[in-house]
Amino acid sequence: MNKRLKQTMLLSLGVGLMVPMLQACTKAGGSDDNTEKVLRIATTMYSGPDGEYFRQRFTELYEFANKNVKIEVIPTYDEKYMYGYVQPDPKEKPEDPLAKLKELMQGDNPPDVVVFGYEQLEDLIADNLLTQLDPMITKDKFDTSDIVPAVIDGIKKLGDGKIYGLSPTFNSSAVIYNKKIFDEAGVEYPTDKMTWQQMFDLSRRVAKGEGADRKYGFSFSTYNMGGDMTYATQMYTAPLQLRMFDEQGEKMTVNTDQWENVWKTMLQLKTEKLLPEQLDMSQMRQMDQQQTYNPFQHDDFLSGRVAMSIINYGELDRVINAMKNAEGIKGFTPFDWDVVTLPVHEEAPDVGGFMGMEGVMAINSKAQNAAEAWKFIQFVNGEDWAKLKASSNHNIVSRQKYIKKKDGIEFNLKAFTTLTPALMLDNKLYRERQNLYRVNEIGSRMLQEVSQGKLQVRDALKQWETEGNQLLQKIKENPNGPIDMPMPMAG
């Protein structure tokens, strides 16, 4: 893997670079005596065979700098299903990595450090399973001022202003735009923190053409999604915390003016053909036979079909490599691009979409070795670690000072670090009731029927409410077993 190769190269960069740095880290965060200590780290993340992948990412440098510390990695993610060698029993509830983590944290030999996803932090705080880090941060004068606001503010948001974990890296999305399309239309480029309405209005000004020559204004993904309105709606509503059902998971909450406005907004984008439509595969095959094949034909942005698109930070490598190697890519013409923040809602002017923090590190409230746990968290979230890991392809280090632009390319990197993440609703409910995702299936069907002109928006929302309430009752009675979906009502 490229990622592993880069990490290996970093680890062998040189005794001249690494040893002084790690010696400094040892003095600052390492152990003062030679007594062997065991630090137990449990994680809900994919860790690889014998925790190899996890160790490469997070623990090897610490073990190098602290010879007397032995780290035990305890994964709670069941990896036997990952490659499809073992098929899960549909009659059994899938094993929940977070539930297993909680069980370990309260067991007889609890882990000292826990590493998990940002979406799991709120649940662990609510169950009083984590140690508040603020007193340790203050005592050791651990500097958090340089941590990306989106990361530290996102963590504080879930802890009622307090810090219960730190994340050394994160991943987020922004809007990438094709400067050539804007220049040809004589339209100004998008800017940071535009409202969704402003961005949609801007997309109207650059969209033009018909059929295969159509230039679309905006896309919720660089990949052609064939007009997936459900995904677009989820991205759009995430910062609004718009609920499908109440906090108890017992009653639908979609038959409202706010949901109606959202659906009408999404449908208007489709009606105006501002969003890319489904690719014509027969046309793609014909182009291939005519030797006009575009290697990026399924990528709406690189193919030049869309002016603006939401893109994940990790996807930028594909864009950069395409532009650098354009001469050798048949059917591809390079163009200038840049990025801006995701658009925002007026009701939530500083909130973007979903953000991945991989992974949030915290101290178990029942840790047997809390002092060493804190030293480890300080080390991995400190400046020296960030300096060494700053060249990651897929994640961004949380220390602003060491964030590097990919391959030295000039672009608006702050677009990925400015907005705080939208909170994911009902994580606990979805874990406890595995069938809850099917509520969204009903909504997708209703939205499809509206887009096909079979139902009016409000009528579709009422139908979603009725069928959804029936489904919620069945799920409450049988949270994880087989569920008979409600019969679709006559349109």
From TrEMBL:
<dbReference type="InterPro" id="IPR050490">
    <property type="entry name" value="Bact_solute-bd_prot1"/>
</dbReference>
<feature type="signal peptide">
    <location>
        <begin position="1"/>
        <end position="24"/>
    </location>
</feature>
<dbReference type="Pfam" id="PF01547">
    <property type="entry name" value="SBP_bac_1"/>
</dbReference>
<dbReference type="InterPro" id="IPR006059">
    <property type="entry name" value="SBP"/>
</dbReference>
<protein>
    <submittedName>
        <fullName>Extracellular solute-binding protein</fullName>
    </submittedName>
</protein>
<keyword id="KW-0732">Signal</keyword>
